[in-house]
Amino acid sequence: MNDTDNSTAVTDYFTDYGTSSPVMDYDNVTSYNDTSSNDTTTNAPTTDSSAALNVGLGSLSSIITVTTLVANSLVVALFARFPSLRSPGPAYLILNITIANLIVAVTALIPNTVAFFTGGWLLSDPVCQLSAYLSCFAFHLTVHTLGVTFFERYLKVCRPLKHLEIFTPTVTLILIGGLWFFAVVLSLFPLVGWGEYAYLPIQRQCWISAAGWQGHLTHMGFTLVMTLLLPFLTSIVFLIAVVRFAAKQRKVSALDVLGDQEKSGIQETYGRKMKRKERELKRAIRERKLKKVKKKKKKVKKGKKSKKDNKDKQSSSSSSSSSSSSSSSSSSSSSSSDEDERPSYTKYKEAKKKQKVERYRANEAALVRTLSWILLLLFIAWVPYMVAKCLETLEPTNDISPPDELLIVAAFLTYATYALTPIILLVDYRKYRKTLPALFSGKKLKVEEDHAPNVGLDVEGGEMDSGIELANARNLAEGSKTSVKSN
C-alpha cells in the first residue's frame, strides 16, 4: 500500500468516527507519523556529504582544466618559438592533437567544472549541444590523428624515401584538413537524429546520452568502431612494424628498441665492426681514385697548353705539326680512356645522399615510444568509459546498470587524458624536453656540428644522428685517416 492509500484510509477512519474534518492530507502525510524530525536528521548528513563531494570533484576538475590549458599552451609555444620543431611530419600532427585538447578545455572542461560547483548546467540547451559536439569532435580528431602519426613514424623509420615523397608541408596540411573534415562529419550525426547529445547529471557533462543510443543502437556500434577499434588497431599494427624493423636494424631485443639511450653506451658487435671497417676501406679507395682523377685532369690541361705553345713555335715545319697532331690524338685517346675508367662523381654523391636518408635513426624511433605512452593512456581512459556507456545503454534489456561511481571515475579518466598527453610529450620526447628550458630563458638553440665533419653525419632539425657510428666517432675518424695513409 502506498502513501496515498494510507492517507485515504486514515481519512475514512476518522470520518467513520464522526469527525468533521480529516486530521491530515496527502501533502503532510509524513507529519502524521511524526517522522519529519527523523527525515531531517537523516537527510542533513547526506546533503552535506553530497555538497562536499561536489566541491571535491569540482576542485579536481579545476586542477585538470588548468593543467590542460598550461601544458598544451607550452607545446604550442615550443612549436611557434623554435623552427627546428616544425618538421612537416610529426610536428604538425602533434600540434593538431594539442589544438584538439585546447578545444575541449575551453568548451567542455570549464563548463563541467562550473557544473560541479553549482550542482547543474547553468547555460542553455543549445550551448550544451555545442559543448557536446565540440568535445566529441576533439575526441575523434585526437584518436585519428594519433593513428596517422603512427603511420608517419612507420614511413620515417622503415621507408624514409617514401616519407620524403608523402609528408611534404603541402601534403601534410591537406592531410590535417582531411582529418578535421572527417571529425566534423562523425560528430554531426547526433545533431541530425542518429543518436543524441544531452546533459549527463552524474558526470556533469554534455555528451552522447544513453537514451540516444537506446533508440539508435547502430550509432553505438558505429561510434565504437570509428573511435576505438579502427584508430587503435591501426596504431598497434604500425607500432609493431616499427618495433620489429628497429630491432632488426640495431640487433637488440624489442624491449630496448624504443629507448632513448646515450650514444656512448651502445656497444659494437664484432660483425658490425667488420662491416664498418669494410665501408671505411671502400670509402678510402673511392677517395683515392677521385684524387688520381683530379691529378690526371691537371696533367691533361698542362699538356694541352704546352702543345699549343709548340704549335705556335713550330708552325713553319709541317713534319713537326703532323707529329704534334699524332701525339695530340694519342693523348686525347688516353685521356678519354681515363675518363671512361673513372667513377661518376655525381652518381657517387647521389648514392651517398640516398644512403644517409635511409640510415636508421634511433631518435626517430624514440618518438614512437612517446606516442605509445599516449596510446596506452587513451586506451586505459576511454575503454572503461565506453564500456560503462554501453552497459548503461543496454540496461533495459540486460538489467545490468553500471554504478554511479564507475561513471564518475571513467569520466574523470577521460578528462585527465587532455592534461597528461602534453605532459608526456614535454617529458618523454627528447626534442621538447631539451627546448623547454630555452623557452623560458629566451636563449637561441645552436646546433653542435663539431663531430659532423669527422663522422659524415647529417644534422637535421638541430639534432645529431644516433647509432653506433656516433658512439665510435673518434675511432671511425682515426681509422679512416690511417687507412688512407697506408694505401
TrEMBL record:
Residue ranges of every copy of the G-protein coupled receptors family 1 profile domain listed in the record: 71-425
InterPro entries: GPCR_Rhodpsn, GPCR_Rhodpsn_7TM
Domain of life: Eukaryota
Membrane-topology descriptor: Multi-pass membrane protein
Biased composition (Basic residues): 285-308
Keyword terms: Cell membrane, G-protein coupled receptor, Membrane, Receptor, Transducer, Transmembrane, Transmembrane helix
Compartmental location: Cell membrane
Main location: membrane
Cross-referenced Pfam families: 7tm_1 (PF00001)
Spans traversing the lipid bilayer: 55-79, 91-110, 130-151, 171-192, 222-243, 366-387, 407-427
An annotated Gene Ontology molecular function: G protein-coupled receptor activity
GO annotation, cellular component aspect: plasma membrane
Record region (Disordered): 285-353
Listed Low complexity bias regions: 315-336
Family annotation (PANTHER family): G PROTEIN-COUPLED RECEPTOR (PTHR22752)
Name of the featured protein: G-protein coupled receptors family 1 profile domain-containing protein
